[in-house]
Prior knowledge:
The structure holds 2 protein chains of 2 kinds.
Chain A: H1 2-17, H2 23-49, E1 54-61, E2 65-71, H3 73-96, H4 104-126, H5 130-148, H6 155-186, H7 191-200, H8 203-221, H9 230-236, H10 239-249, H11 251-263, H12 268-291, H13 296-324, H14 327-362, H15 378-391, H16 398-413, H17 419-451, H18 468-486, H19 488-494, H20 496-503, H21 515-542, E3 548-551, H22 569-572, H23 574-580, E4 585-591, E5 602-608, H24 610-628, H25 638-671
Antiparallel strand pairs in A: 1-2, 4-5
Helix pairs in contact in A: 1-2, 1-4, 2-3, 2-4, 3-4, 3-10, 3-14, 3-18, 3-20, 4-5, 5-6, 6-7, 6-8, 6-9, 8-11, 9-10, 9-13, 10-14, 11-13, 12-13, 12-17, 13-14, 13-16, 13-17, 14-15, 14-16, 14-18, 14-20, 15-17, 15-18, 16-17, 16-18, 18-19
Chain B: H1 2-25, H2 35-44, E1 48-51, H3 56-75, H4 90-111, H5 117-146, H6 151-156, H7 163-183, H8 202-205, H9 211-235, H10 242-266, H11 275-296
Amino acid sequence: MQIITAFILIILLTILLIPFISVKWKGIVTVTAVIVIAVLSSIIAVKSLSGKQIEYLLPGSLVTGEIPVRVDALSGFFILVINFTILTGAFYGLQYMKAYRNQKANLSLHCISFILVQASLISICSLQNSIAFLIAWEIMALSSFILIIFEHNKSDTLNAGINFLIQSHICIMFLMLGFIWVALKMNSFDFRAITAYSTSNSLLTGFALFFCFFIGFAIKAGFVPFHTWLPYAHPAAPSHVSGIMSGVIIKIGIYGILRMLLVIKSDYLLIGYVILFISILTGIYGVMLAIIQHNLKRLLAYHSIENIGIIGIGIGLGCIGIGKGNNVLTVLGFAGALLHTLNHSLFKSLLFYGAGNVYQATHTMDIEKLGGVGKPMSHTAFLFLIASLAICGLPPFNGFVSEFLIYNGMFTGLQGSDKALLSWIVCGLFGLALIGGLAMLCFTKAFGSVFLGTARHQFHRAPKEAGVGKLIPMYAVVFLIMAIGLFPKVFISAFSKPVSLFAGNNFSPGHLPAGDALSMIGICSAAFILLAGLIYFIKRRMTVNKPVEFNTTWGCGYTGSTEKMQYTASSFIRAYRKLAEPLLSIHKKKKEIEGIFPEKGGQETHPYDKAEKWFIDFPLQLLKRFFNRFTFLQNGNLQFYILYGVVFITLVLGIPFAVEYIKTLFKFLNTI
Amino acid sequence: MISFILIILTSLFFGGIIIRIKSIASGRKGPGIFQPVKDIIRLFKKGAVYSKTTSFIFQIAPSIYFASVIMAIMIIPLGEYKGVISFEGDFVFFAYVLGVGKFFNIISALDTGSSFEGMGASREALFSMFAEPAFFILMGSLALLTGHISFQEIFASLHFGSYISYIIGVLATFVLVMITLVENSRMPIDDPKTHLELTMVHEVMILDNSGFDLGMILYATNLKFAMYGALIANLFMGSFPLYITIPIFFGMQMIFAITIGLLESFTARFRMNHNAQYILALSSVSLLIFLGVLLILGQFS
Lengths: 672, 301
């Protein structure tokens, strides 16, 4: 109880304090507050992860009723994930925002929003009263909106922010719909009422209720086709905010889905199939679009969609496991999903921090213009490389462990399944393997064309390595990435409690399926690193006395300047683009070199999102066309506007009166 | 352990056999079957020329690529005899550890800033990406058929009984052979003997490697051949004792090498821009295997 009081007090105090202190201290105060909040909430979270559900009852108000604060293992897990990424983000942001020291008021707003985002995320994980939950959700939406539009003098940023704001509120609308539904029927705002309602009603009702929530949370998480805000918001925000958004804010959608799976008792098999279907779609679609992007941060944003798909595949498998009573599938599915949630929050935030370093050194995010940044920025290149390998799910890093769990779940799920499930699992295998392959194409492109080769345009100033302050939080993330990759079993056994919430009592935490395989993976990964090191060492020893020469790259005999001639990112993926073109929508402008005195030729490709075209732009167009019919009302004459006012007031007053009158008339007629 | 040693032994003469077969098919006598290994040893003794554009990636990539192939070989079993590494789901590790090597190969090609090497890198990334689903669906089908999820257990309990299972065996061999050709960039996907950079896939990626690094990359190709050959041989081994499996192993490797030699002598390469579709079509062959397994298990009755 004291912890909650301290938690609220610190938030309020810092928020009040920040506007009144000097720019230099704003960041430091914010980071300190973030640390304190993180420590306080982590105390509760760690307790809950050991299997103890912690419950406080806040008195609340007349409207909300009692507000239960319940932290179970699932909440605890998410609170820890959130805290870690927010902490690294805060430390990174402290250095990153130094470039904007002259914008004093803007910085205050940014710092306050940063703390509010953390506080609201933690509250969302622990509040179990629907009104309080929605309030926290709204605070999170608004404060992340303010974080996104930090550079609000750019119109793109503002557009992206407004897009985010609108879609967040559509998301809230769906959540509200679900909560109101339950509150109307059960007359309670407690989440337990949802459980009671879904158990006392038919499976179909539970299913409909779940999907109401699912759509809401899916917008936040970025499941296709609800993902369209994400590729705009991520590039617009400052890099540490993009890292946090992609790392944890979209994961709160995953938390919501998992929480609703826990509280709503429904037909899990059907839910599992639907989630699996959407997730495979999300995964493949996300990475397919990621490959063709030209903006590095936009590429990473689409990649978040892909990873949400992988997490979803895990959740879907887990649900099917519950529905089928296949405990191994349940455990592996949910463990894979949770671990991937943690993993993605690590490597994706690292990638965004890396992109931030590149942005501040070169002032561009256009992959076609970058190149050769790896030489002056060797630390950033190294960190970005590790994160790229991890996100592709390659050993010896953490991404492999979670993908392995999901693969393992699928392969074990094959046994004793019926035709329907078997076909789904094969689709899943196909999807996951294809996602892995495409991710590799995507990140070889991203890493290769940004950090390797030579620069593709003249930088105003030669790129310089980011300061130590930025690199330290990044190395902290790498440390955790390596630790999970090398000691997966330790981390997975820490997950046994949240997973057992789903798997029920027939699951002993000590004996995790695939446990032996996990410890083998750890050993193999370590062996792989050692082997590679050993081979490199042998090579160095054997070639120590051999002549080494540095010369120009092989150019088929041509040794002139090669900057313009080197392979570009677009040409790297050209073969893929040709193949995938029918499925995607890419606007092309091409001017061929022709004639005797040719003018300058060129080719541009502008990738666009087909889902956005059909699910956002097309309905909006229809809506606009419909409302255009009423433009005659807005004719600019003051007299008309006064008339509208009079008509409105007359109607407001007149309609109830008329209704009453008609009612009494009917009564009178009835009595006759 | 035994499979590891056997694969290393095979790798010493595998490339030589292919070259010998190709020579004979074209009416020449050809070099001895250990000539490729001798060439590699000569490369190991040489110094190196590095491109000025390259960074640390280019220095470490060949070692990591080589290590990844060695790691993958350790997973391959010999019939019922486990590989050095064996655990449930080891083939996922197998595919992904090879992926690490590929990743580094690709970025080391991009590191040179060359106008050619990116081309090869692009093709290699695309082709190997499309080969992956076929492998996983194949392994999924075999896992479903045998009820096990590690290489050794699958191969030890794989036995052919009905007609359908023979078809599955043939199709699985076909898929694995094609994956080998894709992964090793051989005909009909890629022509290793082409002289034009524009039409190369793998060769163009390693244009700038020299000396020890080039030796490692070339030897890794031989190792990979022997590795996939061992994988194919495993399909036919079952749980026989060693004195039968070892001859089967070498026999299969010989047949495999001769097949590749003949294939390279008598087929033309596919059109480059149709390669991707063709490789993706491998997945559908894998799906046929899956359907066959469903038939065997009586899911349709």
